[in-house]
Amino acid sequence: MKYGVFSDVHSNYEALSAALKEFDKAGVDAYAFCGDLIGYGPEPEKCARALMKLKNFIPVMGNHDMSLFRDDFFNWFSDYAKDSILFTSKQLTPPAREFIKNFPPEYHGKDFAMVHGSFLDPYRDYLLSAEQFVLNLDKWQGGVCFVGPSHVPFIMSYKSNHMPQIDVFLGADVTVKLLPGHRYIINPGSVGQPRDTNVRASFGVYDSAAHTFRLLRRPYDVESVQKKMTRAGLPDILSNRLKKGT
Ligand SMILES: [Fe+2]
């Protein structure tokens, strides 16, 4: 099976379209979405509608998604993130809202596992270190796990009795061979708000038969998204960071 793997769309429809186009070209059979469909960006409804159309769509819920439904998550955010959630809440139609509400906290499948933050805390954790990898080891089975929230693409690999190794994806269109006997935690980066100083949408294609993960970066019309954000009255800090990739 070939999976289009993506995370942290954050209501950025232009960036999402660039990713979906590449998934089409790659001929993916299914989609693995690591959470945070909404928040920050200007087009939550359009993004939700695009994902609702996908066949074999496997999602998990992110912390921004959850803040639509739980006040304790909403209250945890910065003021500008709260502004974007309030904007999102007004934009979403009941079917889109219901679609997001059904995202589960974790996914455990034949070919991979998936969670937004970590299995210790799906919504508030950021799985970034070798120590966290070890703490999560017995929470999932198999060789591959996808995570989200840092917005920086990386791959961690682990072999029994060795400390996990962490590699940040520095280039685009990098293919990694996934070795037998190893376990991997992979962050595909963020589609709609990359934070590794690369403004291009970040996502990947996982081929479970060939045992490969390919990281892709694609440009999209950042200025058009910024204009939409300004028109929507979203905070400048959110549109400015798209141009910097931070
Ligand atoms: Fe996010």
Oligomeric assembly:
single chain
Task: Report the top-level CATH class.
Answer: Alpha Beta
Helix content: 25-40%
Number of helices: 9
Cα-atom radius of gyration = 17 Å
Strand content: 15-25%
Largest sheet: 6 strands, mixed
The CATH architecture can be named as 4-Layer Sandwich
The average pLDDT is: 96
CATH superfamily: Metallo-dependent phosphatases
Explain the overall architecture.
With 246 residues, the chain is an alpha/beta fold. The protein contains 9 helices and 12 strands. It has a single domain, classed as Purple Acid Phosphatase, chain A, domain 2. Strands 3-2-1-11-12-9 form a 6-stranded mixed beta sheet, with helices on one face. The protein has a 6-stranded mixed beta sheet with strand order 4-5-6-10-7-8, with no helix packed on it. Strand 2, helix 2 and strand 3 form a beta-alpha-beta unit. It is globular. It starts with a strand and ends with a helix. 45% of the residues are buried. The model has no long low-confidence stretch (mean pLDDT 96). It binds fe (ii) ion (FE2). The site of fe (ii) ion (FE2) has 7 residues, from loops.
List its salient traits.
globular, 33% helix, binds fe (ii) ion, alpha/beta, 9 helices, 246 residues, 6-stranded mixed sheet, Purple Acid Phosphatase, chain A, domain 2
Write the layout of secondary structure elements.
Layout: E1 2-6, H1 13-26, E2 30-33, H2 44-52, E3 57-59, H3 63-66, H4 71-75, H5 79-91, H6 94-101, E4 106-108, E5 113-115, H7 130-136, E6 144-146, E7 154-158, E8 165-168, E9 174-177, E10 183-187, E11 201-207, E12 212-218, H8 222-232, H9 236-244
Parallel strand pairs: 1-2, 2-3, 5-6, 6-10
Antiparallel strand pairs: 1-11, 4-5, 7-8, 7-10, 9-12, 11-12
Helix pairs in contact: 2-6, 8-9
This protein binds fe (ii) ion.
Fe (ii) ion binds at residues 8, 10, 36, 62, 64, 149, 151.
